[in-house]
Amino acid sequence: MYSDTWRVQVVHAKGFHPSLEFTPPASPSTPPHPQCGLALSLSLPPSVFPDPYQLYGLVPTLGEMVVSEEPDLEKPVSQVGNQSLSLALLHPPSRGVWTLPLHTRYQTPRELGPWTELITLPPPRVLWRCTEPLAWHTALSKDGEDRAAWSLPRPGSIMASDPSDPPSIWVYEAKEVKVHAPSLDLSIPVGDLNDASWVAWITGLLCTLGAFYILFLALLPRQSSSPSEKQAKVH
Asked: How far apart are CA 18 and CA 10, in angstroms?
């Protein structure tokens, strides 16, 4: 059933650090041209983002990756609006099971439940990437289908680069390769607004106690050695 299909599922769906687990097809698909290869593209909603620094460390394992724009790692979802990101894996591993780490943003606190926000990720798209426009055109003519095509910038760069730069990657949908992702649901915790008052009170109390403790240590008389003790230390 899955001989020519990518299987994708969520790992650690509850919390702020989910991952996507990928299982490549048992028999990799043949590229339409020698200068073309398989790529994966993910569309991430505002509540989900990748950590570029973490992805950089995974390049030896997962290959070159391109993010549509560098995400702010600290902003809650209320400060990013409807901003969504795209993540492309230009050379995804074709053997073995591998995972892609993601992160979720803090949700807007509520006075009433539910205390989780359900986010559903769209299935990844399988693409053919061609490093030369000529190869891309040849692949299209051999394929015989009219497919939407677009370009990516140079590997390792940010997608939102200067539009005047000539693209080095041309991609189009690989319709012959399927994706099996029955449920890519994430459950993100939501804070309780009613907790804000006692959290602020406890934080203030701890800060006050810490300040008094530092002041107490500063006022302690420092022990001084007598002349006889100093001579004993010298000898």
From this structure: 7
